[in-house]
Amino acid sequence: MAAQGGAKPHGEQGAAGEYLQVQTTTDSRAEAMELGRAAVEARLAACAQVAGPVASTYWWEGGIERAEEWLILLKTPADRFGELAAFLTDRHSYDEPEIVALPIAAGSAPYLSWIREETVPR
Description:
By secondary structure, the chain is of the alpha+beta class. The protein has a single domain, classed as 2-Layer Sandwich (Alpha-Beta Plaits).
């Protein structure tokens, strides 16, 4: 989002690791879209973004594999990570899906508050 009137966006430091960006990959856009939608619908993530395709190279069962994958980025409070990871693992088509989280070190206070509000179980 662009700042208006030349003002710089404000940030919120908060507690380190209070919010996370969680990522996983799938082998189809359809699965990526469905996993993202389902995680948001379950209020385990405030939003899900799907990007791709991305070219992946990795070790699997003793050999190097190459695949076209779709990247899903999910925003969630750190205290919801366990539930989100279990949800993704349960619904994912991969035997061993990538589920990693990076801390959001800072962000606009309204956006971070929105993440918290939209992930409260209802």
